[in-house]
Write a structure and sequence with these properties.
This protein is an alpha/beta fold. 41% of the residues lie in helices and 18% in strands. The mean pLDDT is 96. Bound molecules: nicotinamide-adenine-dinucleotide.
Length: 456
């Protein structure tokens, strides 16, 4: 693939106005909806072939979410696109002042492997509705899904409007060297740094959707049964390979034993001790991730679970007794291991969490509004839930994105439209009147006039 030519063709097509009108944007969104609905099963089968994800999980998290996002954009796009009139100022009187929402131009979207359809197409919906042409680079670690997306996009879209570029680091690096008008990257913090450095060469704006260690805090007044259900649900979908999975549990010391027995009940009710391939439980994506997780497992004190099988790339959901200095607490786990840590006094929580870089998500289980406010005000994190995990992603009225090491910028719903648009401020002035107070030659009389009229 000639990457440079593809980018140039997309830039020409953008300049020709092929993606700018409401009709053109809606047309591409409807075509994308058709692609997903028609080939839903092929896409879910490809994801399953890549890492054994159950059909129902793929349908809900990869197909339904994107279809729902497209419908939301189709419904609201014309109002989002409208220029917005704003007030003038006394200095610019008389004038009309308008903010136009302009597309950025030609954008690059680089996806991660763990939700290989969602993480490619969800930002793409925003790129299309904002009127851009776009190149998508799905992850090479989900090769069946990547090649299925390539095949479908080649059939459904003209490459000068939307194209899929398949490949690994080499293709990604070549794409990153091009003068895109925006780069939207989902992946690790390590690669996020590489993306930002490459973007700096051409001064390309970036959105970085990265990872991190997202805590689940269980306060002393929590409904433990519900907390255990929802934390384990968040940890076991996609076998914990979710950017916003609860990475570890920080629980009030008085509840530790009760949480362990609630966890036992939850896991046996979820899986009946039988982790059916294809039906209930996802596999680890590849051997190197398996080895990384297995290594952490071997160094941990297992409370529940702990079974693994390399041939099947299977790791059982596992609760481990942990302390802040353990290896498992160093980096994002990105797998079904759940460290359990305790606190005694809520005042220490911000200090304990500050030992880690700012997380993408934070979850707290509590009925206390005071405790909720205390955590929300005192701990930096991207977004999260009270008494739930992960479901903040399901509401397109909420911005989704990280802070600090977990990323910059946000998307979903109108936030996606805004991410891929730029705001252009225009002042429209009539030709009359044209007082000469601002023009040279300057003199004392003009200065006094100006002061009298404008200085408060
Ligand atoms: P990754 O950073 O290894 O890869 C992401 C993408 O970057 C892939 O398309 C890959 O081809 C490309 N890439 C890899 N190395 C590169 C390099 N040297 N130069 C240029 N491009 C390169 O991430 P991953 O393993 O696919 O995904 C897991 C990570 O992504 C986790 O940290 C997870 O938390 C994060 N993630 C974040 C979100 C979010 O929405 N914030 C969602 C999913 C995953």
């Amino acid at each position: 693939m000639n990457v440079q030519k593809l980018v140039q063709d997309q830039k020409t097509s953008y300049l020709n106005g092929s993606t700018r009108s409401l009709k053109a944007r809606k047309g591409v969104l409807i075509q994308l909806k058709k692609l997903i609905s028609t080939h839903e099963k092929e896409l879910c089968d490809a994801i399953n072939a890549d890492f054994g994800k159950p059909y129902i999980e793929s349908y809900i998290t990869e197909i339904y979410t994107v279809l729902d996002e497209i419908d939301y954009h189709l419904k609201n796009l014309s109002s989002w696109m409208k220029p917005v009139s704003v007030g003038g100022s006394i200095v610019t009187f008389p004038s009309k002042n308008i903010i136009y929402k302009q597309p950025k131009g030609t954008v690059l979207i680089i996806g991660a492997w763990n939700y290989p359809v969602h993480l490619s197409l969800m930002p793409l919906v925003g790129a299309i509705s904002a009127g851009n042409t776009a190149i998508l680079k799905p992850s090479e670690l989900a090769p069946n899904t990547s090649s299925k997306l390539k095949e479908l996009f080649d059939n459904y879209f003209k490459p000068e409007i939307l194209a899929v570029a398949e490949g690994g680091v080499e293709v990604s690096s070549e794409l990153l060297s091009q003068p895109f008008d925006h780069i939207f990257f989902t992946g690790s913090t390590r690669v996020g740094r590489i993306v930002m450095k490459a973007a700096a060469e051409n001064l390309v704006p970036v959105t970085l959707e990265l990872g991190g260690k997202s805590p689940a805090i269980v306060h002393k007044d929590a409904n433990l049964e519900v907390a255990a259900n929802r934390i384990w649900w968040g940890k076991t979908i996609n076998a914990g390979q979710t950017c916003v999975a609860p990475d570890y549990v920080l629980i009030h010391a008085s509840l530790k034993d009760a949480f362990i027995s609630a966890s036992k009940n939850v896991l046996s009710s979820f899986y009946q001790n039988d982790y059916l391939v294809d039906k209930n439980y996802t596999r680890i994506v590849n051997n190197s991730h398996f080895d990384r997780l297995h290594n952490l497992l071997q160094k941990s004190i297992v409370i529940l679970g702990g079974i693994s099988n390399k041939n099947k790339r299977f790791i059982e959901p596992t609760l481990v007794d942990a302390s802040w200095s353990d290896d498992i607490m160093k980096d994002e786990i990105f797998g079904p291991l759940l460290p359990l840590l305790t606190y005694e006094n809520e005042k220490e929580i911000p200090h304990l969490l500050n030992k880690k870089t700012s997380p993408l998500a934070l979850y707290m289980f509590t009925e206390s509004k005071k405790f909720q406010d205390f955590i929300i005000q005192n701990v930096p994190f991207g977004g999260g839930c009270v008494n739930d995990t992960i479901s903040h992603l399901g509401n397109h009225n909420l911005p989704f994105g990280g802070v600090g090491y977990s990323g910059m910028g946000s998307y979903h719903g109108k936030y996606s439209f805004d991410t891929f648009s730029r705001e252009q401020g225009i002042l429209k002035k009539p030709s009359w009147p044209d007082p000469d107070v601002r023009y040279p030659p300057y003199n004392e009389t003009k200065l006094n006039w100006f002061k009298r009229l404008f200085t408060k």
